[in-house]
Write a structure and sequence with these properties.
transcription, globular, Sig_transdc_resp-reg_C-effctor, 2 domains, NreC/VraR/RcsB-like_REC
């Protein structure tokens, strides 16, 4: 099986080394390189990683600018933003720029490894303590609004059910259990939902679910 190629982008060498040791300890993951923000675009072009772990705050070139450059590349890698604070004001901007995940730098090693696998498979990830901030409408325009509700009306009844549970932060397997569906069916529904909503990933869809008023109760931390 081909190893999942990972690039780590952070301005602190010790952070890059620590993350590299954690990620590289998994037999199916390979750290192909690490660098500061200014070299990220060049490294991605050269090394073709499947996943990039990107610090959201860097002095030479901030993570949001790096993210936008990477997303503009042909066949861009999945990018997860690394942050120290679960209330980082840049989270909303990164979400709109196409980040596929948000991870706190103190995420447990096994959770970080799992997150890389999910990202490589085309999924999105949120550290539990970040999830509530993002999904409850941290981005500008948070809260129910007419535009989000209008987009949601383009979905079928079953797609609305799936979107509502997506908005609670549930995984595909959890949604399948709740709705008595197969995980493959849930995955198909989510693909259709993303296409109809024009969402880049399930995180954006989850935020829209909240803004459309589909999520009755915000998810509890760690949910």
């Amino acid at each position: 099986m081909t190893a999942i190629r990972v690039l780590i982008v952070d301005d602190e060498i010790l952070v890059r080394s620590g993350l590299g040791l954690i990620v590289g300890s998994a037999p199916d993951l390979e750290v192909v390189g690490d660098c500061s923000g200014g070299l990220a675009e060049e490294k991605v072009t050269q090394l073709r990683p499947h996943v990039v772990l990107l610090d959201i705050r860097m002095p030479d070139l901030d993570g949001i600018s790096v993210l936008r450059r990477l997303r503009a590349l042909p066949n861009p890698p999945a990018v997860a933003m690394l942050t120290t604070f679960d209330t980082d004001e840049y989270i909303g901007t990164a979400l709109r720029a196409g980040a596929a995940g948000f991870m706190l730098k103190d995420t447990a090693p096994e959770q970080l490894v799992h997150a890389v696998r999910v990202l490589a498979a085309g999924g999105s990830v949120l550290s539990p303590t970040v999830a509530r901030t993002v999904i409850s409408g941290y981005v500008e325009g948070g809260g129910p609004d007419a535009e989000a509700a209008a987009l949601a009306r383009s979905l079928t009844g079953r797609e609305l059910d799936v979107l509502a549970l997506l908005g609670e932060g549930l995984s595909n397997a959890e949604i399948a259990d709740r709705l008595f569906l197969g995980t493959g069916t849930v995955k198909d529904h989510i693909s259709a939902i993303l296409g109809k909503l024009g969402a880049a990933n399930r995180v954006q869809a989850a935020v829209l679910a909240n803004r459309a008023g589909l999520v009755r109760t915000p998810p509890e931390p760690g949910a």
